[in-house]
Inverse folding.
């Protein structure tokens, strides 16, 4: 039996393009397979994605990063991580015993920080987005205490907003990890949410919030604030509301906290 010589293909054409993206492009080949280095990198990325999904949410980490803001901790109806992954519907409902923890009032907006499918993303980015966004809101807006939700899906924000009496809700949640990013945060804005009625078409989404490789906190906050103002004008969010902002910071009020969100 003779040894077969493998042909390694790694075109230099792709090298400058790879500098501009984390996507796995132009990996080349060794025979009919990936080169060993790229195969090992792929396996490591897959392991990181699995870890992000299964790592436990630590609400105290987010609460600590939100010092100066009032926070409330709640759970969804999913009792554990396995059930959460197998029963997405339970992640959309607030746990019955936690409903009484939410102070009802005429809040203009509520922020919900949920673990979603990447607690790492939430631990690293959520507090900074809340702070940057709250700083741009008008001082007259009433902002509910920040809700830290465990085993949460996006639609859990609808149930939370109804319990709080909030006119609109921003859900900051860990996005499903991919092969190039396991720490991506998503922001979902919903005006007049109704549990069981509101659909994904009724929401506006900002994804891939993860500086420096993704959307910056300040840019995300500026876009969110712009969408919030327009949602109040139109009385709706979703496909009827387009993001016309250019990402620049709008004229602000120098707001540092928010009524309800800021600790007395």
């Amino acid at each position: 039996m003779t040894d077969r010589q493998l042909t390694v293909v790694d075109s230099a054409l792709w090298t400058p393009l790879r500098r501009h993206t984390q996507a796995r492009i132009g990996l080349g080949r060794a025979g009919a397979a990936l080169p060993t280095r790229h195969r090992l990198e792929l396996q490591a990325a897959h392991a990181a994605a699995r870890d992000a999904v299964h790592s436990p949410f630590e609400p105290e980490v987010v609460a600590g990063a939100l010092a100066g803001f009032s926070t409330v901790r709640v759970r969804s109806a999913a009792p554990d991580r396995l059930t959460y992954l197998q029963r997405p519907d339970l992640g959309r409902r607030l746990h019955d015993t936690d409903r009484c923890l939410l102070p009802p009032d005429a809040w203009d907006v509520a922020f919900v920080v949920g673990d979603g499918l990447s607690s790492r993303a939430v631990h690293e980015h959520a507090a900074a987005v809340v702070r940057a966004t709250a700083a741009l809101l008008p001082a007259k807006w009433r902002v509910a205490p920040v809700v830290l939700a465990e085993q949460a899906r996006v639609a859990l924000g609808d149930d939370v907003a109804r319990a709080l009496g909030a006119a609109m809700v921003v859900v900051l949640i860990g996005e499903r990890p991919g092969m190039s990013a396991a720490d991506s945060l998503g922001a979902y804005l919903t005006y007049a949410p109704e549990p069981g009625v509101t659909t994904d078409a009724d929401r506006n989404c900002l994804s891939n919030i993860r500086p420096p490789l993704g959307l910056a906190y300040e840019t995300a906050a500026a876009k969110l604030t712009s969408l919030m103002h327009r949602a109040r004008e139109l009385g709706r969010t979703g496909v009827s509301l387009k993001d016309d902002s250019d990402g620049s910071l709008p004229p602000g009020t120098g707001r540092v906290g928010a009524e309800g969100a800021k600790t007395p």
Remarks:
- Residues 36-54 form the longest helix (19 residues).
- Confidence is low (pLDDT under 50) at residues 249-264.
- The chain is about 30% helix and 15% strand.
